[in-house]
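Standup notes
- DV: blocked on the single-chain target, sequence here:
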Amino acid sequence: MEANDFIKYCHTLLQIISIPMDISTLHSEQNIMILHNLQLEGFMDLSVRENGIMFSFGAGDKNVYLIKNTDKHLFDPPVYYNDGNPFLDSSSKLLLIRLAVWISKKSKNKISCKRYNFIKVRELFSTWIREDYYLFSALLLNTDLSSFVVENGFTEELTFIAPSPEVLDNILQSVDCKKESSEQKFSSNKVFEFDLSGAKVNIELAYSSDNPQTEIDKWLSILKSEELDKMKTRLSKKLTKDVFSQTDNVSKHDLVEQTNLLCGDLSIDKIIVDKGYITIIFLAPNVLPDYVINCQLNKRLSIIDYYLE
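- DV (later): unblocked, structure below
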């Protein structure tokens, strides 16, 4: 990616949350140092080592990446894992996608939806930034509208971010997107707090009941600690397999290691009780810091569906 394009896209993203960016002084810098010098709190941790620049995204991110010293003359150098194995050909694409995800968390003018006209989305957001082997997210940009879209690589859910509610509404109408976020979806549910495996957990009842306590108690009797641990292991295996399904030369040992890391990192954020099934919303702050994990289970605690958002 050319330096002018990278700087222009950074400027478009940052102005949405009113972070100034003096473009005139940036052309002599490498892409990662441009963002590092902006000192965006919570976005990226960076250190200069003998072998190059080591960096990660946010304090909770265990993934550490490397830009080698041998590539310091390149504006858009490739990215390596911290052990020196290749990761992505374009660091600019990775930096822009992660910057967009970081900004989307801070912006007040955003909506996530799964129902939209993707042809209209591509017409309106003509700049599409993605990496084939980076499965988590892609970025679509409209510099004229100062707006962008983050595409979830697992669920195909799109999150639209705009500088104002008016612009956001116009975009949603243009792409036939129905407004519905996780917060909106369950905002009217009754919320109860219960002790589950030694931790306080919010449980929401997604339907009307004369005796909500009884309905929730039925599920609590099923959600024993041992059964939850087994289910978390099954979920971690499925998610890990999804992540590495398009990656070559991944050993069985690597898959087991990543599964164990994810399983150990999973914690229950809340539980939504519906008729005949529940949705457990997990967080994995170290392994998947930018996502929540939704897992639907039947009364046998078999996984019906799972997705990230």
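- Follow-up: Residues 181-188 have pLDDT under 50 and may be disordered.
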